[in-house]
Amino acid sequence: MGERAGRVSRAMRSARTAAMVVLAALLCAATSSPLAIGGVTLGEPIGSVVSSFGAPGLVETTDQGQEWRWYDQNGLDVDLLTDDGLVVRQVLVAQPVSLDGQPSPLVQPPEFPLLETSVTVAAATLRRSGATPVIEPNPAVGAWRIGADYLVLQLANGSVRKLLALDRDAATRAGYIGAAQPVGAFHAPRLIQQYAVDYPRKAVQEHASGVVVVRADISATGAVTAVTVVVSSKNPDIDEAEVQSISRSKFRPALCDGVACAGVYLDREEYTLDD
After folding, report:
1. Percent of the chain having pLDDT more than 70?
2. pLDDT category, 101, cuts 50, 70, 90?
3. Cα separations (Å) of 30 from 123, 146, 216, 222, 269?
4. CATH of 186-271 among 3.40.50.10490, 2.60.40.420, 3.30.2420.10, 3.40.50.300
5. Which pTM was predicted?
6. Residue 134's beta-bridge partner residues?
7. For residues 193-201, average pLDDT
8. 122, 157, 188, 241: least buried by Cβ within 10 Å?
């Protein structure tokens, strides 16, 4: 019995060592290229993410950027923040929220298999791999610099619960480089009233449905100056209906330091037919 236990213990140590070696290799590669996590690379255009993941479950314009979320994507919740050019600036990954009280199986992001590991183990692994710790006064967060990018560990009960990758621009806004962006410096455009459109007749006849995401350029007066399809429903009539809806909608303009300015607003709509 003791010999068998010894063999099992050695096997577990070997597995942990192998995992650390793999992570070290990944981190060394990351120091010379943008960070990737959950299958998304910082600096990647959102179009290529949509090509890989499909239509997002949520899109929202926030004061921090354009938020895109995929629920339970390959076993992970993936939450992105892009700039107005729709380039990925930060990526948050986490274990999906439990349903009906049943926890989701733990799936590790292959680039950084640190979810649910202890803070001590995660820190030791990152340090051995060449990552540099960043001073973080918040005890619920651990921040590390990897190459030109940053990896933030969001902690709970002594374990890593979420992983956040940020490029230099996002890290600067968050205060990891220099002073944080002043609160209230920018407020994104807000939708005041959306123009209602009918379900396209031809789409009804074809039993067509789908998710469409459009981008609206909003002037400093709140006028819609352009609307483009970012994620197509694969049906041109549905796409056009959404373009018309947002083109005729009313917006409050963005605010830059309290002054009205131009901005970008994204809208996601799911067109479905009742059975």
Report:
1. 86
2. confident
3. 17, 7, 35, 42, 36
4. 3.30.2420.10
5. 0.86
6. 143
7. 97
8. 157
Q: What is the pLDDT of residues 150-166, one digit of tens each?
A: 999 999 999 999 999 99
CB-CB contact of 109 with 93 (8 Å): yes
Residue 91, token pair as written in the block = 């990526």
- State the pLDDT confidence band at 25, using cuts at 50, 70 and 90: low
Whether residue 7 is predicted with pLDDT greater than 60 in this model: the reply is no
3 state SS for the chain = CHHHHHHHHHHHHHHHHHHHHHHHHHHHHHCCCCCEECCEECCCEHHHHHHHHCCCCEEEEECCEEEEEEEEECCEEEEEEECCCCEEEEEEEECCCCECCECCCCCCCCCCCCCCCEHHHHHHHHHHCCCEEECCCCCCEEEEEECCEEEEEEEECCEEEEEEEECHHHHHHHCCCCCCCCCCCEECCEEEECCCCCCCHHHHHCCCCEEEEEEEEECCCCCEEEEEEEECCCCHHHHHHHHHHHHCCEEECEEECCEEECEEEEEEEEECCCC
User: Could you tell me the end-to-end alpha-carbon distance of the chain, in angstroms, rounded to an integer?
Assistant: 61
Sorted by where each begins, the domain ranges of the chain are 2-174, 186-271
Give residue 31's pLDDT. Answer: 53
